[in-house]
Write a structure and sequence with these properties.
3 domains; 34 helices; 999 residues; mainly alpha; single chain
């Protein structure tokens, strides 16, 4: 004991004061204990080291490994082999979940603003800004303040192994939060009355509507945030904070649903927040109970929770006050700027404030980590560790602020262009940006860390009075800018968006230019097609990631199961969706060319509805994959394939949303955004595969689940981009009655238009089945090796064909015959140029690729067989078939685009393949020669038909189709308007009759 007292006296962190506080609570708890001494002793021994999971495992060695891993990951300051720089990096890494927690707040606020802006109502924006600030000051910030104190005190108690204290702190925090909220709710429900003193009646009314829906969220947030503070005090940051990041990322769904779709207005915006906070609370409590976290803490309220509330309050409020005071000071700063009555200054300030949180999330997240680490170290009376944490925290603060400042310097002009839309706002945005980036950020970062150290070391009163004096008495946040700046002529938001987004996104229609010759146009169209090339190249990256991780298991059945189920899923899902949506791209381009945007909306909705209908039926087959596969493969492979399909099937429903929306971009000749996004997400796909398949050991189910996550991200991103950028506002993305009408009129054009890709895909799969049925392992291995890179040889022609469809579609919609002829000749020349260049490059890379993708001499030999037949024969005609086919499909010749490949690939191709492979015993040679003949027949028929196409007749035919669709659309709208008129007339008559009866 004397030695312990010595340590306390020498501590620069005032450990004696903390120990006295803990001893007081220990005496209080001991007086009310109902458990026997032996039970308490048993609990103390069991929880000597913090354990998070109930010991359900019978394997003690495994439990020991988990504990050792925990020590390695979390107790970094107890490891003497770590250098200072490594400690800084490890601290930053551990803090990332806390950083995401604060970043998610920005996502939530950004979602609210963007959905509110959809209504084009300035009163909505003003009401949201005022009520959000009001709700934060009286609710959210106050809860965070009290629970920040809870985290500090709980971490100290955990460090000293006083887990009963943690239970009492948790319960008291919730009780005090609820008591405060009950009183503050009285103010919140009178928001309209309070706001009426300084706001217009409309803003006051809308603010009250928002607060009415917002109030329940505060009660849900109390439970979530207090529970999260317990996780944080145990240094388990990832579970609650990643949950928060996920729920806040999907928050826009609820606000769009309630505010826009259900037309609740500002009330819906508040309800959306309540739904999100309820999900946070429910999910975290489920995780807490399901996984058995913190068995040593009593989360249910007891009598002790209602005693000595002042003793808890006098420590917790000063501990958490710095965040609250900083928050309020920032709000007051905005009020001062608004009082200047200078729109350009307020616009610049508001634009910077909207991203301000992004610059401090790192220091805020780091401060939460420091609180937990130093709290536990103080509880253990470990002076050396306290000093190490203090030193590392301060150095990390400077390191983070320096890095952010440097990156911000590079992004200065980009940020100004992105977040402002007028010269005046940009100028004032840059003033705020530079002052913060070069001066304020370093002080803010250091303040967060030093404040965390002070309030964790029993100096909470200093952490309260210093910022109170600095922010409010000294007025360090006063406004120094001059009023009455010269107003700069500003463009409207609509003009800026038109200049900076849609015009920049749309590819230049160089076919209308007369200063370009044909060769220049060939290179132009190849260049424009590169984003579409990335689209198909990204598919190869995705498949390569799947195969690479699957092969790392060294299980042949895994590889076979993936190959079969991937082919099966493509045939029943992915390829079907592409078929429908390829037709959507062609028909939408025609409608856009003729300025029939309502027709584009109808096509978009019908495409999604039909895709979902087909997927419902095909999902039945995919979810019974094991029964189908057992007919021709062994049971283990069939069962593994079924596991993959369980995770894979939901991805198809997400892909419908992404691909149909992408085709709307393509129809507008805006190729860059969706295809670059796809390349990015498919490049990241490897992370999800590795995480779910290997790290979480979900194996084949994890492989399918990773595809679902990737496609869900694609769908969310592309819809978010569409909404945030307000692109293609003339197109209605939400389903209407039109989505369920005249399906046959859509199907008979869309299926033939998109069929050539599907038929080619299925023909390639049938070729693989023929080769596998030869029972020649070396030949099949060589064939499979080449098929794995086959897509790389056709990505350029495929990407070019998508470009041709949209350019030609718009030209046909405009009835521009000269442009149609020009696109045809340029497309064919570009196809020949591309395939010749690919063939030459492939000739020089043959040996390199053969050696890289094969492992035996025989496999190498058969790989080169496939390689040479494709490179010298198939490649050129396949490119020609793709370009000619795309021209035919979009010019009203879609039936030829359907029947020719059907005959060549299946009616001629399958019997020919059987004869060459089995009857003449050419085997692998026969399979590829027969496939090449089918491609040759298709290319010749398509090219001849394109050369002799009657463009006057073709354009009139397409115009008749469009006018017929428009007429049907108008008839439906007239019927809807008539039925609405009759309903209103009936209601009016009823009201008149009712009025007469009353009179």
């Amino acid at each position: 004991m004397p030695q312990s007292n010595n340590l306390v006296q020498k501590s620069p962190l005032n450990l004696r004061k903390i120990q006295n506080d803990i001893d007081e609570f220990k005496i209080e708890i001991s007086e009310k204990k109902t458990q026997s001494a032996s039970e308490l002793n048993q609990i103390s021994n069991y929880y000597y080291q913090p354990k998070f999971f109930a010991k359900n495992s019978e394997n003690q060695e495994f439990d020991q490994q988990v504990e050792e891993q925990y020590k390695r990951e979390v107790n970094i300051f107890e490891q003497h082999d770590k250098g200072q720089f490594e400690l800084i990096l490890r601290t930053i890494l551990i803090s990332l979940p806390n950083v995401f927690s604060f970043a998610s707040l920005w996502i939530l606020n950004f979602s609210n603003l963007k959905v509110a802006e959809i209504f084009k109502n300035e009163d909505y924006i003003s009401a949201y800004a005022m009520s959000f600030m009001w709700g934060n000051a009286l609710g959210y910030a106050l809860i965070t303040c009290l629970n920040n104190g809870l985290q500090v005190m709980a971490a100290q108690a955990i460090g000293s192994k006083q887990f009963n204290l943690v239970s009492v702190y948790y319960q008291r925090s919730q009780i005090l939060n609820f008591i405060a909220l009950i009183f503050l709710t009285g103010l919140l429900i009178k928001t309209d009355f309070i706001f009426s003193f300084f706001c217009t009646p409309e803003v006051s009314k809308y603010s009250q509507e928002f607060i009415d829906g917002y109030i329940p969220s505060l009660y849900f947030y109390v439970i979530f945030d207090s529970t999260r503070s317990i996780f944080n005090s145990y240094k388990i940051y990832s579970v609650p904070n990643y949950l928060l990041l996920f729920t806040y990322s999907i928050h826009f769904i609820w606000i769009y649903l309630f505010m826009k779709y259900m037309d609740f207005g500002m009330l819906g915006l508040g309800i959306g927040r309540s739904v999100t906070e309820f999900l946070n609370m429910a999910c975290l409590l489920l995780v807490l109970n399901f996984f058995g976290f913190f068995k040593n803490i009593d989360f249910m309220w007891t009598k002790q929770a209602f005693q000595n509330l002042w003793g808890y309050l006098k420590f917790s409020i000063p501990m958490g006050s710095i965040l609250y005071l900083d928050w309020i000071a920032s709000d007051l700063q905005t009020i001062f700027v608004a009082a200047l009555k200078d729109k350009s200054q307020l616009a610049g300030h508001s634009a910077f404030v909207s991203i301000f949180l992004l610059y401090v999330v790192c220091s805020l997240g780091l401060s939460i980590t420091i609180v937990s680490f130093i709290g536990q170290a103080i509880g253990k009376k470990d002076v050396a560790q306290c000093r190490k944490i203090m030193q590392t925290g301060i150095l990390t603060s400077f390191f983070i602020s320096g890095m952010i400042s440097f990156i911000s310097y590079l992004l200065e002009d980009f940020s100004a262009d992105l977040f402002t839309n007028t010269p005046g706002a940009r100028q004032n945005f840059l003033k705020c940006y530079k002052i913060f980036n070069y001066i304020t950020i370093h002080g803010t970062s250091l303040q967060q860390i030093m404040g965390a150290l002070l309030r964790s070391s029993a100096n909470q009163n200093k952490a309260f009075f210093v910022p109170f004096t600095g922010y409010f008495i000294l007025g360090s946040y006063s406004i120094n800018q001059e009023q009455g700046q010269n107003q700069i002529e500003e463009k409207t938001l609509e003009e800026v968006r038109q200049d900076s987004l849609e015009q920049k996104l749309e590819a230049d229609n160089f076919f209308e230019r007369k200063d370009l010759n044909q060769i220049q146009m060939v290179f132009k169209i190849i260049w424009v097609s590169f984003p579409n090339v990335f689209n198909f190249a990204s598919l190869w990256i995705l498949n390569f990631s799947n195969v690479y991780v699957t092969e790392s298991f060294k299980e042949e059945n895994y590889v076979n199961a993936y190959a079969l189920s991937f082919m099966w899923g493509n045939a029943l899902g992915f390829a079907v969706i592409n078929c429908f949506n390829n037709g959507l791209s062609a028909m939408s381009a025609q409608a856009i060319g003729s300025n029939q945007y309502d027709l584009v909306s109808s096509y978009y909705q019908r495409s999604q509805a039909l895709n979902y209908l087909i997927l419902i039926f095909s999902s039945v087959l995919m979810l019974n994959t094991n029964y189908v596969f057992q007919l021709f493969t062994d049971k283990e492979v069939a069962d593994l394939s079924q596991e993959f399909m369980w995770g894979y099937v939901p991805s198809l429903f997400f892909y419908v949303i992404f691909d149909s929306t992408r085709n709307i971009f393509n129809a507008h000749k805006s190729y860059t955004i969706p295809n670059s996004q796809l390349l990015f997400t498919y490049s990241l796909h490897y992370l999800w595969v590795w995480l779910f398949m290997k790290k979480f050991d979900l194996q084949m189910f994890g492989l399918g689940l990773s595809r679902t996550i990737t496609e869900a991200i694609n769908a969310i991103l592309i819809i978010s981009i569409l909404k945030i950028g307000e692109l293609f506002k003339e197109i209605k993305l939400l389903w209407s009655k039109q989505a369920f009408k005249n399906w046959w009129g859509y199907i008979k054009f869309s299926i033939p238009m998109g069929s050539v890709l599907y038929l080619d895909w299925v023909a390639s799969d049938l070729q693989t089945i023929f080769v596998s049925s030869m029972n020649e392992k070396e030949q099949f291995a060589g064939h499979s090796a080449f098929v794995s890179i086959f897509l790389l040889y056709v990505v350029m022609p495929l990407g070019l064909s998508i470009t041709i469809i949209t350019f030609m579609g718009q030209a046909i919609g405009k009835k521009d015959i000269n442009q149609c002829k020009k696109i045809t000749s340029v497309g064919i020349l570009a196809s020949l140029l591309i395939t010749i260049l690919i063939s030459i490059i492939s000739f020089f890379l043959k040996d390199i690729q053969a050696n890289f993708f094969t492992s035996t001499e025989a496999q190498n030999k058969y790989f080169q067989v496939c390689y040479e037949i494709n490179n010298y024969f198939i490649l050129h005609f396949q490119g020609l078939a793709m370009i000619s086919g795309s021209i035919l499909r979009v010019s009203g010749q879609q039936n030829i685009g359907f029947y020719v490949p059907l005959i060549s690939y299946f009616i001629i191709g399958i019997p020919l393949q059987y004869v060459l492979v089995f009857t003449l015993e050419l085997k692998l040679y026969g399979a590829w020669i027969s496939y090449g003949i089918s491609v040759f027949i298709t290319a010749v028929f398509f090219t001849v038909k394109v050369i002799y196409i009657d463009w006057n007749k073709a354009l009139n035919k397409v115009d008749q189709i469009i006018q017929k669709q428009v007429k049907m659309l108008q008839q439906t709208e007239n019927k809807n308007n008539m039925s609405l008129y009759k309903r209103l007339e009936c209601e009016n008559n009823y009201e008149n009759d009712d009025l007469e009866a009353k009179l």
